[in-house]
Structures
1.
Amino acid sequence: MRNLAVNASNHEKTPEEYMLRLRKSIFQMSKPILVAFDFDHTIADQNTDIVVRDLLPREKITDDVTKLYRSDGWTAYMQKIFFLLHENGIKPETIEEAVKKIPVTAGVDKLLKFLHQTNNEVVIISDSNSVFIRKWLEATCLNYTVQKVFTNPAHYDDNGCLRIQMYHIQDWCELSTKNLCKGHILEEYLKEREKSGVKFHRVVYVGDGKNDLCPCLRLGHSDIAFPRCGYALAEVLCGGGQEINASVHTWKNGEEIMKHLSNYLNSDYSS
């Protein structure tokens, strides 16, 4: 406080100007917005699992493999795909290069950098896996913009085969797959941050698919849901059949989201 007062005497000509600067400084010591992102088709402009699956010849994905998705879920299906990739001599380096080549969704790199620069917090909640997301973020030099990633744990075993586990096994949410309830993860993270003394002015969720509906339904009246245009989440939230507390803004590129959030931040600073 003493330093602020000294600075005020040099730069602020009136008590009102000093108080405005003080409020801004206090605001910047908190986290104005938590932005939770999906990953596939949201930050990265393709689906990491599909890109890697397509490294296999189509004849290798038999009906028995496809049935795994219907019976045991996507995670079990992808584990079988990873086994097949290993059996067919497709090395980890080839898998990772395919993931790294996925382009960033237009403008989302600028959005992530903007959020970082303006003292907001970014998390990823994704049904991809930890290896794919980590390698992609490192390749695009965007890893520093993300506070935390919630996704299915993965690692290479001693033989170089990619192994994946479910993030958790849940039976409480009918909107979500059994291995990942994004709404539950978002709520638990907010509780964790509040215990650490961080409370956000508002929460934002950015996504594209039906599995992004659950976290959007848990948003409050001051929060924002950003469903991507042309994808399933936008159809659900903008079709009139689903009520949601948060305001809803569709988007085609990250700069549209950045413009919306910049307006919110400017409004908060000036209030």
Note: The first helix runs from residue 2 to 11.
2.
Amino acid sequence: MELELRLDEVRARVSAAAEEAGRNVDAIQLVAVSKTFDADAIRPAIAHGQRVFGENRVQESQSKWPQLKAETPDVELHLIGPLQSNKAADAVALFDVIQTIDREKIARAVAAEMDRQDKRLRLYVQINTGLEPQKAGIAPDDAVSFVEFCRSELGLSVEGLMCIPPADENPGPHFALLAKLAREAKAAELSMGMSGDYETAIAFGATKVRVGSAIFGHR
């Protein structure tokens, strides 16, 4: 199936899931995850009206997105993979949104770089809802206090929370937990749901869904 048809299908399924949940589809943003795909593979999605993209790695993004953003200035780029502190300067320079603020060291590095570059990014705190030792993110019990620390101590604009549920578990309870934490933290945005479960995420209130293989095909 051509990329354009896959993108149309995902958009239609987002709309249907929103309608079923009694939600306005305009409140749900589709983040097309373009990691591992080169600029030539991404351009058809841009030409088909997609404007919000997600990438996992800073270095890979630097090889393709400066040119793509120059060609289409209204494209919005989200970092959805782990950020190392030594890449904070590059990430702040290239991305519009960082969804993976996952520890104090990264929060401080991003705050310092935004001050240095005089650039304000929109930020999400990543929550490790499954308490998986191999996965990044703040523990659920620490989520609200960490968001407050980022806002009050570092002056960061944390607009939302993000999670990646355990692959072998029902994602619903994880999405419900993230939504509860977001309400407590007064964070309006919820980034949750990927190619296999974005319709479930929409039912639980997702405002950003991160869809890769259902749009670009398997890597």
Note: The chain is about 45% helix and 15% strand.
